[in-house]
Amino acid sequence: MVDQLIADHEDKGLRMRPEVEQALRAVPRDRFTPGVTVERAYLADRSVVTKRASDGEAVSSVSAPFLISEMLNQAADAVDGLRGRSVLEIGSGGYNAALLAELVGPDGSVTTVDIDSEVTDRATACLSATGYDRVSVVCADAAQPIQPGRSYDLIIVTVGAWDIPPAWVAQLTDDGVLVVPLRTFGMTRSWALRRAGDRLVSHSQRLCGFVSMQGTGASQVRHVDLAPGVELRLDELQQQVDPEAIDGLLSAPSTQAWAGMSLPPATVLADLDLWLACRVTGEGQQFVVLAAEQTAIDAGVVAPAWRFGTPATLSKGGLCYRGELTWTDSRFDLGARAHGPDADAVARQMVEQMRAWVDAGTPSPVLHVLPAGTPDGDLLAGTVLDKRHSRLAITFTS
Ligand SMILES: C[S@@+](CC[C@H](N)C(=O)[O-])C[C@H]1O[C@@H](n2cnc3c(N)ncnc32)[C@H](O)[C@@H]1O
Q1: For 334, which of 11, 40, 258, 373 is 20 to 30 Å away at the CA?
Q2: Whole-number mean pLDDT of the chain?
Q3: Residue 275: CB partners within 8 Å, gap ≥ 6?
């Protein structure tokens, strides 16, 4: 499993820190994954679901090793080594807490918190059975302060969040780091954010997916059916879709536009998706995420870049989304597909933004988190996204 993780990191141009590798080799993952075979426990790209809600949705899992290891490397890079640090993990399972215990060593501390007592009971038992009983396990809603008065060098959130509750910033040391899978515009990235006063600024980000946060910080994505097997996802406050405007939209003939670019090697298209979210909103156009069942793709109803969540826009002109890459004349090209009364124009508009991103040197997003109520004049240039407790500003850097 660890050899595979190292190879995956190299493929993505990431570096596996030696101490993270050592921790991954030391902790017996199969002792934290109830009900699955040893072989299954050590699959690098698979989580192990441990609890589902009545509608079948996963609410607790032991996260996939590749994701755990990417986030631990992000955390260790951002705090410049975890040895001796004090860490709060939000969302328990036991496995990641044991890895953190290896990383902080005997002079550091690890507290793990989960909202579900079934999860904390199992985590306590697994940690004790494997000799990691120095980890402190707490059952609570982690949107609230956990051990008032105590601060942490690192808070690592292992559940999908939509906002940054004030308690997370308040519990960090002055230059502490928060690693959090945060949803913006319906797309989740694991951000490593360093504290500077009452603000946080990102150090790195990675594409990821997580079960959603429960309790007072819960915020669900809204789903709107577009056609059988095709839906739009609305995530941000005030987002609305007029049912009449989308009725029969996909039955209209589609148009395809190409950016006509040659993509540089190792281009991170997840960065393009956030760029599009930031650039195509406004002037009667809203950003949404399109998702589709394979059956709808096979039937030719839609052809998105990624069926689990592709950037899209909705306006009077129609629906437009990022299409699959194409390989022509020895180059990969980016494209947009659109349906609706002004499909050509909306597709052209999206590919113009794709070209702008490539021309700008395929920049990556930087996230600035400020408290809700921060006056507009104190925000940085960039796209501003208002959550309940925070104002986010997203800028791009090459
Ligand atoms: C993906 S699992 C955590 C995985 C774990 N860190 C591991 O070692 O693999 C996410 C957990 O977050 C918990 N959770 C959800 N909302 C929470 C909240 N508000 N406070 C604390 N825990 C929460 C869920 O009960 C679930 O067990």
Answers
A1: 11
A2: 94
A3: 353, 357, 363, 365, 396
